[in-house]
């Protein structure tokens, strides 16, 4: 009988893993076997009623684990609508791993069930439900709003940038929607303010996070995703993450230098990460023919604010202490306002004319 049970549970786990979710059973006897094995440590129980083989679970990243739980809960509760960070995960909004430890469910005023353990319920009404990969989630606007109103600016801007890129609405229109749906909610002004800085051209979390630090530290903001003709083949272009227009008419190129970027580029091109990195080095070498300094910003740079500031200062990126003070004042007194500092170079002939 034990061998038969083993085969039955193996089949249960194999089906779940194939579908990218946790295993579960509505049969009380099977649930009892799963719970006993979880207590013995041979399998894991990520949340009540859901199970996974230990080696499989330990090999998953936190975002994939969260998705396994969501898919299993949706199968068990077809009417559940996921919201906040759980919906953000389905929408592809950048979420820090630490925020994915709990699952968020949307409820209505009539539903009096309270949150329990790692299942958090939120009262949300008058929102359009969207289906993504078979999962019911709150709308993009509502999801972005709920995430932004709880986030500090530097962690919120990557969410706002991505929401602006996914939406057919402009950041200003998204702000207007936030005002409408946010009546009676805490953090409305914070969400509106962060969205005021959103730029859909930002292509990665690191680009957005670095730009958030530039804003709060009073640096002149660059243009994003600028195309430059290739010096050795002008019929083609290189696209750079940042391009600063300096006061003297020169330029500084900026690149967000995350290793994840190389792995993703490698996957798209079918090459190895090492080969992709070598291609990037050749690209940078060619860009130096323009005579522009190339400022590379790494994840580690953004985690040490003094290093980040010193690096941009070394490259001569304009900075204003007055802007720093004004932005900090806005953050406390009028968080729905936005202030940008961009240095504009005016050619001498404009004045001469």
Secondary-structure topology with pairs:
Blueprint: H1 2-19, H2 28-40, E1 43-47, E2 50-53, H3 54-58, H4 62-76, E3 81-82, H5 84-91, E4 103-107, E5 119-123, E6 129-132, E7 135-138, H6 140-148, H7 153-166, H8 171-181, H9 188-195, H10 205-216, E8 223-230, E9 233-245, E10 251-256, H11 259-269, H12 273-287, E11 294-297, H13 299-302, H14 305-314, H15 321-333, H16 348-352
Parallel strand pairs: 4-5, 10-11
Antiparallel strand pairs: 1-2, 3-4, 6-7, 8-9, 9-10
Helix pairs in contact: 5-6, 6-7, 6-9, 7-9, 7-10, 8-9, 11-12
Unreliable residue runs: 262-266
Please tell me how large the radius of gyration is: 24 Å
Proportion in helices = 40-55%
How much of the polypeptide forms β-strand, as a percent range?
15-25%
SSE order in H/E notation?
A: HHEEHHEHEEEEHHHHHEEEHHEHHHH
Question: What spatial order of strands do you see in the largest sheet?
Answer: 8-9-10-11
Net shape: elongated
* Spatial gap, N to C terminus: 94 Å
Supply the number of helical segments.
Answer: 16
